[in-house]
Request: fold
Amino acid sequence: MFSRFRSVYIAFDVFPAPKGSSTHIAFMLEALSGAFSPVLCLCLGAPAHPVVQVEEGITILRCKIREPNLLMRAQAFARFVEERLSSLDQSPEIVVFRDPWGGVPAMAALSHAPFLFEVNGLPSWELGYAYPALARRAALMEKLKEKEWFCLEHCSRILTVSRVTKAALEGLG
Reply:
C-alpha cells in the first residue's frame, strides 16, 4: 500500500496544526503534488488526526507517539521514518525534510535519493526557547549540531525562504 511514491516529505511537526510550520508544510506538499505525485508525507499527528490520510496525490502517515520528552519523541520519529522509508519498493525522485530528526534516518534508508533540506531554523538554534534546560547540556548540543551538519553536508540542496536564515547558514561554513 505504501510502496510507490515519486516524492517524500518529512516533518517533525504535527500536521495540520494552527501554527506557521503547518502553512509551510501545506505549500510544500501542494508543490510536490504538482511536480512529483504521488507524495508520501511522514509527520507527527495529534490525537484527533487519522494515522493514515489520503488526499489527492498525497498520502500522510502520522507518527502518533504520546511522549512528553522531546528527545524520546524525536528518537521515536526517527525510527518511524527509517522503518517507513526502508519498506518502499523504489527510491523516490526527491526527498524533502525539515529537520535532522527526519533527515538523518531518511538518508540512511534511501542513500541514493536526492535530498532537499528545507531549513526554516535549526533545532540547535531554537532549542533554548522551548527547552532551555536541554540547550544548556553541552554534549547534547554538540550531538545535535553534528546531526544538523551531517544533513547540511549530505543533502543535494538547501532551501530557505528567509534571508536571515540564509545568512546564518552561510556563517556556519
In short: Residues 70-86 form the longest helix (17 residues). The chain has a mean pLDDT of 94.
